[in-house]
Design a protein that fits this description.
The chain is built from three helices and no strands. It is mainly α and 135 residues long. The protein has one domain (10-117). 19% of the residues are buried.
Length: 135
């Protein structure tokens, strides 16, 4: 990994990733569409492909959205006079979707930046088709 002497600090990397920007230069966009990662940073040519977030962004998004929405559901049940289920559905389903759509690309960018900052790259696929952990 070509992080070099002037590599930005961890929190700068994380904030750049949160904003969907390249963790190294902060200029190029990480994504070519909503969640599709670019193979390289368009500004500094950093190879982004080895830094695969996989399921981590979805996991963290579900974790955070759940910890925001579930206490609100319980609070409404306890202090809101136990409204009918359609009220819960009308409130929490859209809120959950909006929160997830807001957080998912930001968390994915932050996870990619975290992987880059800690040099956690996926192994290169081998040309023989077998797994080569040294590659
Ligand atoms: Zn860059």
């Amino acid at each position: 990994m070509d992080q070099g002497e002037n590599a930005p600090d961890f929190w700068t990397c994380l904030m750049r990733g949160w904003r969907g920007r390249c963790p190294r230069c902060g200029e190029g966009s990480l994504f070519s569409s909503f969640l599709k990662m670019r193979s390289h940073c368009p500004a500094c040519e950093l190879a982004l492909e080895p830094f695969r977030a996989d399921d981590a962004p979805a996991y963290f998004t579900i974790f955070i959205v759940g910890h925001i929405v579930v206490p609100m559901v319980l609070a409404l049940e306890k202090y809101g006079g136990q409204p009918p289920l359609w009220v819960h559905a009308a409130l929490w389903l859209p809120l959950s979707v909006v929160l997830a759509l807001f957080l998912l690309p930001r968390i994915k960018g932050a996870v990619i930046a975290l992987l880059w900052a800690h040099r956690i790259a996926a192994p290169k696929p081998s040309t023989t088709g077998s797994y080569d952990p040294s590659a």
